[in-house]
Prior knowledge:
Blueprint: H1 2-29, E1 40-49, E2 63-70, H2 76-84, H3 89-92, E3 96-97, E4 108-114, E5 117-122, H4 135-150, E6 157-162, H5 166-172, H6 187-197, E7 202-210, E8 220-226, E9 229-246, E10 249-251, E11 264-272, E12 275-283, H7 290-307, H8 309-314, E13 315-325, E14 334-343, E15 361-370, E16 373-379, E17 383-384, E18 389-390
Parallel strand pairs: 5-6, 9-12
Antiparallel strand pairs: 1-2, 1-3, 4-5, 7-8, 7-11, 8-9, 9-10, 11-12, 13-14, 14-15, 15-16, 16-17, 17-18
Amino acid sequence: MKDKIIITVLIAIIVILVGYGLYYYLVNFDDTPNGLEMGRETINIYFNNEELNPDAQDCGAVFPVGRTVLKPVATPKTALQELFKGPKESEEALGYNSWFSEETADILRDIKVEDKTAYVNLEDIRDIIPGASASCGSQQLLAEIETTLKQFSSVDRVIIAIDGHPATFYEWIQIGCSEENDFCDEAPFQESEEKEEEEPNFSTTGNLTINTPGAKPNVWYLIYDQPGSPGVKEELRFGPNTLCYVGEVEMACAVLDEDITGVRATVTGFEEDDVVLVKTLVIIDQEGSDDYLENLTNQAKNWIEANAPTYVFDGMALTFEEIRGLDLVDCENCYEVEFSFNSRQAGYGDRTDGASAQVITSHTIVVFIEDGDVTRVITDGVYDEINEEMIDN
């Protein structure tokens, strides 16, 4: 009897451990667009692969490549932006290839999803990738875009336009207009562009909140007072062209998280039925906004003066140039702070034991700060001040 109890207990423990392991995997490593509820997740983008599809035997064959992004921006727009950057060098070494590259990184003008149809508006790409209009080339182009978008449950169909004109795109790739692409109806694209030109009807300062009792989960609200109506609550909806700022520094809207609940912000956009499509959101009180950015600047300055070998050795005239918020998918709260300074001798780092030319040399030094920590300091784009070594390009 005692042995049976021990065995039962052991089985229960194993079940609990296996269950926890599965839960941990799903929370941290699931690579589907709908799999995670926090942190980062992996979305797929799709390229051809000459190793898996020799000589492009199947013009429409594409294969997934993972990209890790912040969860709040794991959207169709983010996936296309990653796709249009093309394969990385490491991926090219594995046989992945595409029409897309650094030259096409900024071709996305807009994307909106309505009734499970993604309307993709591109810059004019005809001169950038002319070969994509060939029969096999167009199949690969469409397969990469459509497969990348259809991984999202919100997308079943994809219609593409150039400068708002679907006919321009589909005639270029020799498909033409048909029922499959709504006979190249321009209305959905014009509505999007008209919205951009329309004057906002909402501009108010209030406090940002999320996940408060009685509110929709994971949805941002702006709470503000107006004469006779204190505590007005407006739901905020962020579109692909929404711009977010901390003071005057642009930041990724995706970095908004529960840590800034309650901060003051000015929201400008288009109000309809108690929902505001946000055009711009300016945080005016994140740890004092201006004070917050000033603190980052002082942190960078103090680090240089105390720790940067090139400056510590013989630097002078350290001058602040600018601070920039970084819109990076793999960095939630990143800034780079740029300074200039002069050295009395040429070269980098501690030059005590070297023979350096006695000449006044100008330098630019950039301090990267992530979540309040200095993570990288680069002088003139060539010298790593933290590791005290030249950067191997």
